[in-house]
Each structure stands twice: as structure tokens, then as C-alpha cells.
Design goal:
Blueprint lengths: L1 E5 L10 H10 L5 E2 L3 E2 L8 H5 L5 E4 L2 E4 L9 H5 L6 E3 L2 E3 L13 H5 L5 E5 L4
Antiparallel strand pairs: 1-8, 2-3, 4-5, 6-7
Length: 126
């Protein structure tokens, strides 16, 4: 699959509207933010899935998805993630799933970007 990427990182102002839109749609943050957002690449080889010893990950529509009922909070998925995109809330892993779990056609972060800098890109590296 692929993940959300910033078309031109130099043009990203770091306004954080993408993060706020994500939080509004999901009721919690599903992405990391430093000076600029860090997006899950939805790696086709899913190192997070392979690292999970309890089978908390499954693939839905080519996207690695976490089952919070199975996650034990060991953080092995975070260690395996090349982007460090796994979020832990209440000791349970979570991550971007391109709004697969929300009733939207386009991921909320893409819709929210005032500069139209975000897009879904097919993963070439992972």
C-alpha cells in the first residue's frame, strides 16, 4: 500500500491542522507530530505486524490495522516501525489507518491541509 506523504516538506508550515483533523475524526491522536507531522507509510512488508508477538495486527485493504483487544502494550511494533509512527494511549498501540475506521472518503488530514500538501502515495521503500 502506501501512506500519507507531504508533497513538499519545505512548504509545510507546521500548522498542525492535519493533526487536529485526525484527532477530531477519531476522538484521539493517531499520528505523531514534532515540528511537522510524521505519517505512517502503511508499509507493504509491515514490520510492525511482523514484530507483534500476540497477533494484534491484521491487514485490511492492504493496511496494517491494530486490534486493541489483543494488544498487550509491549511496544515491539513501535521499535520495528521505520517511521516510529505507532502511538500508545492507555498502554495500547494505535496508528493511522488512512481513516479506514471513519466514515470519510478522504483521510481527514488530507482534507484539512490548507496548502493541499498531503496525498496518499504508494509505498516504494517498504
Amino acid at each position: 500500500m502506501g501512506g500519507i506523504v507531504i508533497k513538499n516538506e519545505l512548504m509545510c508550515s507546521g500548522c498542525g491542522l492535519c493533526v487536529r483533523a485526525c484527532q477530531q475524526v477519531h476522538g484521539k491522536k493517531k499520528m505523531k507530530y514534532a515540528e511537522k507531522p510524521v505519517f505512517c507509510r502503511q508499509c507493504s512488508d509491515a514490520p510492525c505486524l511482523r514484530a507483534c508477538r500476540v497477533g494484534a495486527f491484521k491487514i485490511i485493504n492492504k493496511i496494517p490495522v491494530i486490534d486493541p483487544e489483543r494488544c498487550v502494550g509491549c511496544r515491539l511494533c513501535l521499535e520495528a516501525c521505520p517511521e516510529g509512527c505507532i502511538i500508545f494511549e492507555d498502554l495500547v498501540a494505535d496508528k493511522c489507518v488512512l481513516c479506514l475506521d471513519a466514515d470519510v472518503l478522504i483521510p481527514a488530514c488530507i482534507e484539512a491541509c490548507p496548502s493541499s500538501l498531503l496525498r496518499v502515495e504508494i509505498s516504494k521503500h517498504h
